[in-house]
Amino acid sequence: MKALMDKLSCKICKSEKVIPYINQSNSVNINSNDVRITDDRYGKTLPLYKCENCTFIFAYPLPENIIELYENLEDENYISTLKPRSKEMRDILKEALKVKPDAKSILDVGAGIGLMVNESKKAGLNAVGIEPSKWLVSQAKNVFNLDIIEGIIPDDKLKNEKFDIIFAVDVIEHLEEPIKFLIDLKTMLNENGIMVIATPDCDSFIAKKMKEKWWHFRLAHIGYFNRNSMTKAIQQASLNLIKFTKQVWYLPFGYLYQRLSSYLPIGFFYPVIKKMKNLDDLPVRLKLGDSMIAFINKK
Ligand SMILES: [Zn+2]
Known about the structure:
The chain is of the alpha/beta class. It has twelve helices and 13 strands.
């Protein structure tokens, strides 16, 4: 029991004041399909606990093979959402360049199919991406002719490399050791470089309204931050928070409609929208405010 209690301390602030949150009886046996980017079984999570000290919410216990799940991840549905997701990356890049206008190089960690790398190259930056999923790395080659490094950080191929901006968009909520992740990123950051960490905000208006039905409650997410716990994590990694902003989302109308139909009985109408190609693909700009972006630099 002692061993169990030790493990149940908070990953961010180390407090042992940890209380059950939701889904304690859920299974921890999950596979690569359960961590797909477009998984829509909202509210289905691993057993979650909450730290009473810093309010970080985290999954416990965890499956043993988390990295393997991502290495074997394939997600055909994701390909249909690339256009709006590119817009999201462009917005985040634009924000980052406001903070670091003289940037010449970027690293995107958890690069997926290479959207941020692609946008950064278009902006004239020297861009490198790293991604664990073999399938996404091969799709990056097919779709954008990009060479994304297959792996996770720290990686030997990036040893001795330093960057002006390091992005991790929707990555930290998937990781077992968020503080170690921030520290690993820090070692790859140029002296005056910045880190840009985007993640769902579980204290946002929408998250609070939707409670356990919030779309970010999903099996792939094992750590849930708010501004308070993210600030703590940044401090624990001996980094400095510059500012928080809210992420703007773009989603294709058809995709959004499908997602909405898991909450409302409107699914029967979807085949009609699917036939209207322009409407199906139409990017809808959503300022939901339920994802936050932390801009971080060295102290
Ligand atoms: Zn805590």
